[in-house]
């Protein structure tokens, strides 16, 4: 390391880190503080507010919508991770055959991921419209369903609808990352396996999957993190309704704060979401460290 | 290519026929975007036609005209740009400084800083909205672009640092050493040697941050209650949230809003794809 002014490097490092600590770290800490206080519209800007201990957390745990929405969140995130990785892997393998134009067409898929999440939500709300929506028209035309599906107004279907929309939105991103990891697998391994008589299935199972494991774990963490942020998309499609059927934790927490002005309970609810994201983030950071050592 | 084919088990056809299949698949996948664009070209009768028309019978710009004249699309677009451009600039300045330092320093301080950044990028904006609201209310910055710009940058900056760090590592240290020998200071070396070499990655990351900030919704909704200041995402939302949405108009509004993004993406497709893959997994 050249000895020339390393002090400047520390200044360079400190500025963005301090910015993030100020505008992300501090809000998180503030959120934790609010979760043990009674915060309403009247005292929201005061610093000293009544301390209520774990009351807000008790309110949250006793709240029926919270339990329902916690299950929703796990289902929503779980299905997104499984589908985005499963479909993403299949699509990446398909494009890895290297036919003419493969790279361009594969990149084109990323168009859906480039759209603002709010626009994706608005677009799918229109596609999923019960009466004039194109989804019902196509499904009925193909005789896959008799009567129109109430995609967004039927509590039994709404979570599926927002999940489908979010998979469409996010899958290309997972696919691109998996495709990148695929190209990093040494070709010699496949050649050696072929010479030993391994078929396509065996090569996938014994070479491709093990080699992809760290990347898949990293992608799964990223998908979880991005899916927990799906606020915009769900807000535009259903606002979490009907009857919280398509609601997820960050959105419910936001609604407690900004619709009911119950900021304390909203913050306590947010703490649970923080916990989930934080646990996944630790896994993500670990996979990255692991990769750095390996590669 | 023959290697690739052998390793994954080629389809029986191979070559151009596979390209046709792939193009069809991509076309079907992107159908929703096509549907958005053509829905905006329909009139109020055709938008509710049964069966729906997959090619507009009489394409008309009436819905576009309506949103321009009645919904003030231009004001919304201007607001989105007034937020997105400073976010991009601020992110690139702080991001290139931080990523450069992270790529050159090697000690525990940097390790901790990297983990802090990785962890801070994961929290959903919706959960930070209340503290942000209180912070900016205390600073008396509610209903200012400054508030939204500062809040949004906290999201894009973490992302930029994560993507840029491995890219800065690829600048050879030897080039910097040569520059020191020539008598340049660290700051001059950064400005005159390192940044020019990083031009392409910085453009890619800047574009991605611009797109994120341009489509930002939560902070626009929470920190700006004056309609004149709200970005286009909030405008589209208030349009969709209505009991009976005029879908051709909503889609026209959305199309105008996203066409610039799609154009930028198509122009920079290869670079964006390689930038993303280089950054997110390392």
Polypeptide structure, described:
The complex is a heterodimer of chains A (about 300) and B (about 280). Chain A is mainly alpha-helical. Chain A has 13 helices and no strands. In chain A, helix 6 packs across helix 8, helix 6 packs parallel to helix 11 and helix 12 runs antiparallel to helix 13. The longest helix of chain A is centred in the N-terminal third of the chain and has 32 residues. Chain A starts with 5 loop residues before the first helix and ends with a helix. The mean pLDDT of chain A is about 90. Chain B is about 75% helix and about 0% strand. The N terminus of chain B is likely disordered. Chain B has about 280 residues and is an all-alpha fold. Chain B contains 15 helices and no strands. In chain B, helix 7 crosses helix 9, helix 12 runs antiparallel to helix 15 and helix 14 packs across helix 15. The two termini of chain B are about 25 Å apart. Classes of the chains: A mainly alpha (about 300), B mainly alpha (about 280). At the A-B interface, helix 1, helix 3, helix 4, helix 5 and helix 6 of A face helix 1, helix 2, helix 3, helix 6 and helix 7 of B.
DSSP, total strands of chain A: 0
Fraction of residues in helix of chain B = over 70%
> How much strand of chain A?
under 5%
Report the sheet with the most strands of chain B, covering strand number, pairing sense and barrel closure.
none
pLDDT under 50 segments of chain B (min length 5)?
1-7
Count of extended strands of chain B: 0
- The secondary-structure class of chain A comes to mainly alpha
- Output the helix-strand order of chain A: HHHHHHHHHHHHH
Q: How large is the radius of gyration of chain B?
A: 23 Å
- Straight-line distance between termini of chain A: 22 Å
Strand content of chain B: under 5%
Oligomer: heterodimer
Spans of chain A of 5+ residues with little confidence (pLDDT < 50)? none
